[in-house]
User: Fold 4-diphosphocytidyl-2-C-methyl-D-erythritol kinase from Microlunatus flavus.
Amino acid sequence: MASPLPPAPVGVHVRAPAKINLALKVGPPRPDGYHPLATVYHAVSLYDDVHAEWAEPDEFELEVSGEGVDQVPLDDSNLALRAARLLARVHGGRDRLGVRLSIRKAIPVAGGLAGGSADGAAALLACATLWDIDLAPEVLRHLGAELGSDVPFSLLGGTAVGGGRGEDVAPALARGSYHWVLAFGQEGLSTPAVYRRFDELNPGPTMPEVPADLMNALRGGDPYELGAALTNDLQPAALSLRPQLRRVLDTGLELGAVGAVVSGSGPTCAFLVEDEEDAVDLSVSLSAEGVARKVLRASGPVVGARVVG
Ligand code: ATP
Assistant:
């Protein structure tokens, strides 16, 4: 006798990680306004959680709780809602789908850690699972690129090279696990404002390339080499808009970090340390200095958006 089909899930829980950019090289703006990037993404163990539940047809509802909740839009500009609507429109067929999404944020908003993209990626995967839309990972990533350039990486996770405006992702040859201390800024930084300052500071940037020393360091798995190779072309722009970040970076290095970099467009500062014990020590001493709103430990690489329940 054929076994009965499993019941459709009532709810799906997806967890998606924050990213830091181990390298972020930025080229001259393209005619469409986007900057070409050569970046190395690294997913770290700081997660937003998205729950998706069935709702009435054509109803798309959202609630958000957690870190920075008052800065998260609840309207159709929210990346999780946009993801659900996009998936329903492109792959929903004739079905009139609906979903109730609930996001529990731990990734700070406008922190340069791609929290919104993590939510978009998580919502795509959660809705595809809930609605039983079976898509190959690369099809889901392709759809994710329509939402934002960091979304394909939020789905992929690990350590990956990003080209185009960041959306062309491919896993990097990388060894080892790394320990990080993350220092959150008092307030978020607007990504478009950081790019505008980048343009003012860099009238003629060259086409970006992923730095060879960073790729060698990742192949070797040595945190000291990796720490020395961390690089971000947006860092001077972020420091120019938020000069106090210089003190945060200097303090972390003085307290023993083997590398320090502003993540993406900032203001989160990421400090690389040798091992977990050093991560505990640095997070305690950096917190005591009072230079950051919040200090957390994380490790990477971790997997991208995954169904966890
Ligand atoms: P970027 O990916 O551009 O570097 P970021 O990591 O600095 O962004 P995000 O937390 O992704 O910052 O938020 C950027 C903006 O996206 C926010 O200011 C907010 O207006 C908008 N946004 C849309 N959806 C979300 C979401 N689900 N969570 C957080 N912000 C969101």
The first strand starts at residue 11 and ends at 26. The chain has a mean pLDDT of 95. Residues 71-73, 77-80, 103, 109-117, 119, 150, 191, 264-265 surround adenosine-5'-triphosphate (CB under 6 Å).
